[in-house]
Each structure stands twice: as C-alpha cells, then as structure tokens.
Amino acid sequence: MKVVALVSGGKDSCYNMCLCVKDGHEIVALVNLYPSKESESGDELDSFMYQTVGHQALSYYSEAIGIPLFRREITGKPVDQSYDYKEDKHDKDEVEDLYRILKQLKDDNIEFDAISVGAIHSNYQRIRAQNVCDRLGIKMLAYLWGRDQKELLSEMIDNDIDAILIKVAAMGLNAEKHLGKSIKEMYPTLLQLNEKYGINVCGEGGEYETLTLNCPLFKKKLVIDESETIVHSDDAFAAVAYLKPLKISVIDKISKNVV
C-alpha cells in the first residue's frame, strides 16, 4: 500500500514507518502537525494527540529521508476527551487538524491507502486516528500497538533508531544528566526506573519524549548544533524540562562498511 507517515520526530513514529517499509509498503509522504506561533504554551502544547517538543527539527526530515513533508499548524484543542470520539460535535478539536491535512492531500491527488501511526498504548490516540481513517476510507498501520515496552525499545535500539531524549518529566529523570542522551545510552537507566518507580520504558505515560536524528530510512542524518534547555519545573526528584533545538544540520551518513 501507499502510506502517509505521521511523524512527530519521536522514536515511535519513525520506527513504525520503518516497519511499514519492511512489510512491503511505500511511504509516499510525511505529515507533521506543529504548534502555532501564537500558541500561549509555545513549543509544548497541552495536547493528548501530538508530540510538539522538538518540532523545529521536522522541517529537515524531508531532506533527510528524501520524501515530501506536509505540515499544518495545530489550531484545535483536546475538546472531546471522552473514550469515543464524535467529530460531528467538535469541529474545533485538535483531531480535526489531522483530518484536514490528510483530506487536503487527497484533494491534491496524492494517492495513499493508509497512514503510519506510532501508537503503542494510548487508546485515546488510536481511536481518534482510526476515526480519521474511517472517514477518509483508508487504513491505519500501527505495528507497535500493544507491544511489550522493554522488548520494543530494545528492538528499536537493535534496529538503529538513533533517538535522543528531548524531554524529561518523571521521577528519576534529570534534565542536566539525561536530556540529549540516546535511547541506547538510557536503556539500562529506564529499566532501573521501571523497576524502582514503575515508569513506562517507552515513555508512554509522558515520562520522556524523544527526537530521532537518524534511522535506516534516513539518507542523511540530523545533528543538533545548538540548543536551549527550557525548564518547567526544577523539582529535585522529577524535573520537567525539554531541549529546544536552535540550530540543526543535515549531514551525510557514514557507511558502516567503511574501515
């Protein structure tokens, strides 16, 4: 099938896109939703649907992957927070931003049969993405859904998903110590924190968010040359902070076969 990949920059959306290709599908476009410049909360929206931290990097994804990228500002809010989503009652819900950009692609004669979604455990996201798919007559490909998180994160690392922690918001995670570290570097720590505090190893409870700098589908890789740490809460036990990329480069990848 021809697939439009929903990408936030996080490890989950990028790995699910890799699995789509592995399963024989073709990624024809990337779609990203990002916060409006007029947003009161700036880079990080109070969204139940979208990761917006690190959105500055997404404009470089098309160059890195070699696939067209389509973006839309998030104008809606999480209006309908009920288990079942009813689009006819909530025209201003943030879910409608996703519907509108995909509908626009259809109207512009971009052919696709499915979307790639990196949902693992959130029924809130899965149900709403499925609602959009049903209305457009397309399928949802969510290869990560329901997977064991310890096994899944290990699999991502083994399959060369190079993603760094771009936000921390959990007991045991420290902005100064952990922001910017790769998931490979953080894996032992995340397992320990899972045992000690019960955090979700893949960050499904909002414990952390990631930014993918390189993966097997990337023809080039991203480098964060300059960034700023934004601290929301400097709590000694559970700081809330994120990295804001200020300068990003897209560079050639070095072949592993080079001696």
UniProtKB/TrEMBL annotation:
A GO molecular-function annotation: diphthine-ammonia ligase activity
Gene3D superfamilies, alphabetized: HUPs, putative n-type atp pyrophosphatase, domain 2
Pathway(s) of this molecule: Protein modification; peptidyl-diphthamide biosynthesis
Positions of the Diphthamide synthase domain: 1-240
A Pfam family of this chain: Diphthami_syn_2
Catalytic activity of the protein: diphthine-[translation elongation factor 2] + NH4(+) + ATP = diphthamide-[translation elongation factor 2] + AMP + diphosphate + H(+)
GO biological process: protein histidyl modification to diphthamide
Name by which UniProt lists this protein: Diphthine--ammonia ligase
Job description of the protein: Amidase that catalyzes the last step of diphthamide biosynthesis using ammonium and ATP.
PANTHER family in the cross-refs: DIPHTHINE--AMMONIA LIGASE (PTHR12196:SF2), DOMAIN OF UNKNOWN FUNCTION 71 DUF71 -CONTAINING PROTEIN (PTHR12196)
Family: Belongs to the Diphthine--ammonia ligase family.
Keywords annotated in UniProt: ATP-binding, Ligase, Nucleotide-binding
